[in-house]
Specification:
The protein is an alpha+beta fold. The chain is built from 9 helices and 12 strands. The strands form 2 sheets. Strands 3, 4, 7, 8, 9, 11 and 12 form a 7-stranded mixed β-sheet that branches. A hairpin with a 4-residue loop joins strand 3 (145-152) and strand 4. It binds ligand MTE and molybdenum atom.
């Protein structure tokens, strides 16, 4: 079944917070934010249980304080359609992987400690003019749109979400890489005081990911800055994270502070930890097992039965050509 859903709030009520309620809460939170009570409210939120209602309010509370809130929602690009319903917002924003805040799925509250301003993005390495740009200036320059994307974690769970953001190609065009550049290396923020996971010295911080320039300029490569028609929640990678839906989730680096253009293939965080299990390409393929489990099927968040996993996560028509000159086995295209 082809499902075309325009916006998160057009979902049945069982799946999303109705917009009216959302707006009311948001203006309330804005009023609170205007006074010195904000920290107190944050403390209360942190202390409350993880019931769905509290979870929704806390998630909204964090984006009410986001200065980019006025930019969203943005118009949906109808080119990217889903074969399944959108994942419930409460699931996508409370079941996360973000090792900077701990290795469990339940880090959404801890992630609220991340300050989003000032947030400076460095664009450097093999480029005509290295630059540092504040996130709000970057957002103002980039063509924002919404896309419905599937997301497939290497751990065999998946979801389908509406990201807002801009094509990564727009960032590459802004960077004007030299002809010698072949890869983009991306780096996550480092701040042990707010990201307690970064105190775990056995991990090779900061989190790093990389793409070839051909991948980064493929139309599907997207820098996501929003989710469900609102600013990106901190736990999902605010203020900017990568979305390359034909690749396993660990490639989708969150909290990016640097895009470095280089002629050296970057070694990513997970590749450094266990290269035999998490390779550079990490393209989704149901027929190539992870060394410790099958990738044939996936557990869709909120759905009981497992569903078959698709080659390139169903995005082969956009990306298969990128890999036609590589050897699937020798080059380890699929891990
Ligand atoms: N910086 C950073 N980025 C990260 C991760 C991480 O631990 N740190 N986890 C990755 C993994 S394994 C997945 S599946 C996705 C999860 O994104 P989500 O929480 O928005 O679903 O983020 C990816 N990006
Ligand atoms: Mo993942």
């Amino acid at each position: 079944m082809l499902v075309r859903i325009k916006r998160g709030w057009e979902l049945p009520e069982s799946q999303a917070t109705p917009e009216g309620v959302f707006l009311k809460r948001r203006s309330l939170l804005k009023a609170v934010a205007a006074g010195p009570l904000l920290l107190g409210a944050g403390g209360l939120l942190a202390a409350c249980d993880d019931g769905p209602a509290q979870v929704a309010e806390a998630a909204e509370g964090s984006d009410a304080a986001d200065p980019s809130a006025g930019l969203y929602p943005v118009e949906q690009n109808p080119r990217y359609t889903l074969d399944r319903p959108l994942t419930e917002e409460n699931l996508a924003t409370t079941y996360n992987n973000y090792y900077e805040f701990g290795s469990s799925k339940n880090i959404w509250q801890k992630a609220q400690a991340l300050p989003l301003r000032p947030w400076t993005v460095a664009i450097d390495g093999m480029v005509e003019q290295p630059m540092e740009i504040g996130i709000d200036d970057l957002l103002a320059k980039m063509p924002l749109e919404e896309r419905l994307y599937r997301h497939r974690c290497v751990e065999a769970w998946s979801m389908a979400v509406p990201y807002s953001g801009f094509p990564m190609k727009a960032l590459v065009d802004l960077a004007r890489p030299l002809s010698s550049a072949r890869y983009v290396k991306m780096v996550t923020f480092e701040d042990r005081d707010v990201a307690s996971g970064q105190n775990a010295a056995w991990y090779p911080w900061p989190y790093i990911e990389g793409l070839t320039l051909a991948e980064a300029t493929n139309e599907l490569a997207f820098i996501a800055t929003g989710l469900y028609g609102k600013p990106m929640p901190k736990q999902n990678g605010a203020p900017l994270r990568l979305a390359v839906p034909w690749k396993y989730g660990f490639k989708h680096i969150k909290g990016i502070v640097r895009f470095e253009f280089t002629d050296q293939r970057p070694v990513s965080f997970w590749e450094e930890i266990q290269g035999s299990e998490y390779g550079f390409w990490a393209n989704v393929n149901p027929e190539v097992s992870h060394p410790r489990w099958s990738q044939a099927t996936e557990r869709v968040l909120g759905v009981d039965e497992r569903v078959p996993t698709l080659l390139y996560n169903g995005y082969g028509e956009f990306v298969a050509d990128l890999y036609k000159d590589l050897d699937p086995v020798k080059d380890r295209l699929y891990i």
